[in-house]
Amino acid sequence: MATARQRIWGWYFFDWASQPYNTLLLTFIFGPYFAEVARAHYAGLGMAPEAAAAEAQAVWGYGQTVAGVIIALLAPILGAVADGSGRRMVWIWVFSACYVLGAWGLWFLMPTAPALTLAIASFGLGLIGMEFATIFTNSLMPSLAAHDEMGKISGSGFAFGYAGGVLSLIVMLALFAENGATGKTLIGLDPILGLDASLREGTRAVGPFTAIWYIVFMLPFFFWVKEPRHDGPTRGLGQSLADLGRLLKTLPSRQSLFAYLMSSMFYRDSLNALYGFGGVYASGVLGWSVTQIGVFGIIGAVAGALATWIGGRIDALRGPKPVIVGSVWVLIVVCAVIVGMSRDQIFGLPLAPGSSLPDLVMYGCGILIGAAGGTVQAASRTMMVFHTTPERATEAFGLFALSGKATAFIAPFAIAVASDLSGSQRIGVAPLIGLFLIALILLVWVKPNGEQATR
Question: What is the pTM of this model?
Answer without folding.
Answer: 0.77
